[in-house]
Design goal:
Elements lengths: L13 E7 L6 H8 L6 E8 L5 H10 L6 E6 L4 H11 L4 E4 L5 E2 L1 H13 L5 E10 L4 E3 L3 H7 L3 H10 L10 E4 H6 L11 H9 L6 E14 L8 H15 L2 H21 L3 H9 L6 H14 L4
Length: 306
């Protein structure tokens, strides 16, 4: 059957936005698969002030792929959210795919997701699947039964659960967006440093925005390595509490923050990191402490941090 994707290479259908920062060891793997995406496309690479050889590797790649429509933007280090907003502002195509420069896209899966969106114009974004992969060669599925359960909830229940018990992760890298829906919600909040979770909160709090979750169509290999931002526990904690403080509705805010605090306390107890426990407590609004104490027994029982 003839593909639904239009073939006129002069009219890009998809923009691939690649935020890059100090990924000299990984970025060639990413770029080599991006150019294989069999969709009329342009590629927007945004380097966030890398201090390694990443910019030169990108320039060499562009020189060797002059038939590809690649725009390379270099800027001073100002964070991932800044790069994402620049990429969104530059995007003029109907669809947008975002992939970190240390991950590897699945060209066939991306094309299938776009074909689905073309056939279903009422759908605003498509969450596909993928695999985690590790330095030791191990691979696991990104999405689990918790994700199926979450995305199949009625709107009101899902809206509450995204603050109190959201399944982690929810990845930009596994999602194809209609560009207009990201622009409609204003892109990424400049005051929040976290990238994935806040944008899904903004999308999922609008019941008029429609999406599909189909992890059987694999879109990305999500790389885990020592420099992943989530492995900086202090930074990740501060990002989560800041996001919940700004995004959660008043009625859920303290409860949501308290539940995340119980997670980090459990993590600290399990690793005998008493100094972390006091740091997390000092960095959390006192109104959330009740909910931390409320959730802590279940967190410890279920070992939710593992």
């Amino acid at each position: 059957m003839e593909s639904e994707v239009k073939k006129d290479k002069s009219l890009p259908l998809l923009s691939v936005c690649i935020p890059a920062y100090n990924h000299e060891k990984y970025i060639i793997e990413c770029l080599s698969e991006v150019v294989k995406i069999d969709v009329p496309k342009n590629i927007i690479i945004i380097d966030d002030g890398s201090t390694d050889k990443t910019p030169q590797i990108i320039k060499n790649f562009i020189n060797n792929h002059k038939n590809e429509n690649i725009e390379f933007i270099e800027k001073e280090n100002s964070g991932l959210v800044s790069s994402l907003n620049i990429g969104l502002e530059k995007t003029q195509t109907e669809y947008l795919y975002i992939i970190a420069s240390d991950d590897i896209p699945n060209p066939k899966g991306i094309k299938k997701a776009i074909e689905y969106l073309i056939k279903n114009p009422n759908i605003d974004f498509f969450i596909g699947g993928g695999e985690n992969f590790f330095d030791n060669g191990k691979k696991t599925k990104i999405y689990t039964q918790k994700h199926y359960d979450f995305f199949n909830l009625p709107f009101k229940k899902r809206y509450e659960k995204i603050f109190l018990d959201y399944p982690s992760p929810m990845l930009l890298q596994s999602t194809i967006f209609r560009t207009n829906i990201l622009k409609k919600i204003g892109g990424w909040d400049k005051s929040i440093v976290w990238d994935d979770y806040p944008i899904f909160v903004k999308l999922l709090r609008d019941k008029n925005i429609q999406f599909v979750f189909n992890p059987n169509i694999e879109i990305v290999l999500y790389r885990h390595h020592g420099a992943n931002s989530y492995k900086n526990t202090f930074k990740q904690f501060n990002s989560e509490i800041d996001a919940l403080s700004k995004l959660a509705p008043d009625i859920l805010r303290n409860k949501a923050i308290g539940k995340r605090l119980s997670y980090y306390w459990g993590w600290s107890l399990f690793r005998f990191k008493i100094d972390f426990m006091f740091y997390f407590l000092k960095s959390t609004p006192y109104k959330s402490w009740f909910w931390m104490i409320y959730y802590l027994p279940k967190t410890l029982k279920d070992k939710l941090w593992t």
